[in-house]
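#random but structural
TW: two for the price of one
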Amino acid sequence: MKLVPILEAILLTAGRPLSIKELESLLPEFDPLEIRDAIGYLKNEYGNGHRGLELIEVAGGYRFQVPQHLSSWVRRLKRVTPIRLSKAALETLAVIIYKQPVTRAEIEQIRGVDSSATLRFLMEHNLIRVCGRKEVPGRPLLYRTTKRFLEVFGLKDLKSVSQILEEAKPATGQLSLFEQVE
């Protein structure tokens, strides 16, 4: 049996991104190099925009998804609306992305407003998580982004986020969430 259709079936039904290591452990009868080559082949096959699916690398793994230009058609079937983030949620998420791990107090210091409800919303949608406690008096919770965040925003890893944030910095002289206020 050929490897490509097996990978297609596994990636299509997984429901989440699968890493190369996961694929190798699922398919021990195939050489790891053969698996990597087959993934490369599938990326080329499904990356030209002429199909109803695309294979993307996201959150440290690979998954099939509907291309953006076809998503409105699929939403008719699913009857779901995409997550809509308010300005407050986007601001809070931006601070967490850039500063992670970060405490609520640090977020509020940057934003200048209470962020409790926004943090709760982001946690309910599994875009952020508690990753520990800061070693200071009171031991406040530390927040960071999740793999789900990478999946929702179609990002390969946190390096991708850093590159996007660096490109999004405003011109010199403008104050933004990405600059330290002294």
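TW: number two ↓
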Amino acid sequence: MSAFTQTAKFATGLYRGKAAVAYAGYVKRDELALLSLRPGRTNPYASYEKLRARGPLTPTRLGDWATTSHRICDAVLRDRRFGVTTDDDTPPGADEFDLSFLGMNPPDHTRLRRLASPAFSPKSVAGYADRIERVVGELLDRAAAAGEFDLVSAFASPLPIAVIAELLGIPDTASADFARYGAVIGSALDGISSLRHAAQLKAADTEVNQLFEDLFRLRRREPRDDIVSHLVAAEGDQVKPSEMLPLCGLLLVAGFETTVNLIGNGVLALLSHPEQWRALCDDPAGLAAKAVEEILRYDSPVQLTSRTALEPVELAGHEVRKGQLVLTLLAAANRDPEVYDRPAVFDITRERPAPHLAFSSGIHYCLGQPLARLEATIAFRVLAERMPALRQTGRVKRRNATTIRGPLRLPVTA
């Protein structure tokens, strides 16, 4: 069982079924169950604060543990006595799609991450700055011409898709399908919600696998300077043939899922705090990067993850037994009053705040974070430069998800 599947089941209560989750949340006022229901998805931070009041590490109704503490979250994510899988887990594919090294412990995690890392190094990512700037400009040109537009579908989503498609070497003719497949697969990170959802996921998984298989054949004949070409060159030596598709699928989802929601959450936070939006518009070049870090802290795109104890561990005065889960509530940790001054205040001018956990920590620290940071920094800088009169014009539609937080629709006008 992968970390994402563990987290989804732990957070949403799928072990007990939807009716039991509703009963636990609405009747028993279980804050973890509420996170998977409408009130919790609208405002998870109220539940996080109630959980925080119970102590740094609290037992769950499912017999595991949850923590809102920045210190404990960081410690668990860094501790090799915790992993994303256990030895007796079912193999990938049994009840989920394979998220490659994201669901692996060392040494397999180390081997595959090392193979993908060069494409996301700060030096490599810096080479995409001009491309990102061009895409941002083109998207905002079209949005300005439209007048009112949906910030997500017109800007936040197509930007990272264009960049990750180029990184992987996806042909331009397939980029639209690529974006659609990625969105469907990304929607399953909280678990499968219905039979229809399962069918959509299966179809998208089949189609994106075919896209990559075709691309593998093409790059074996015509290699280029892209990730797929490098993977094909390493096939059989550093990467097994069976690992190629899951690795590319992970890079597809990870390459845009965080950035889409980072931009969406950021614009929503900025427009909801007009003084912060004005500050950014007054100094786009100076404050864009700081705004990105505050957005990641204040309203994290990835709200939570989990780790499994690989052996008995003493944690915050409690014994975590082998096989028990610890739900690390990253978004709650990013508002921990022991770490941040005025934690619930959105302030893009914060000076030297403590490192946030929006990109996790330890060996699973987000591989794509340099790219996400660069894309978002350029996006917010250019948006503030070109659209200082930007304002929200309609109701926000949020994702129906617990693990990933962000708007699905955010109508605005410039």
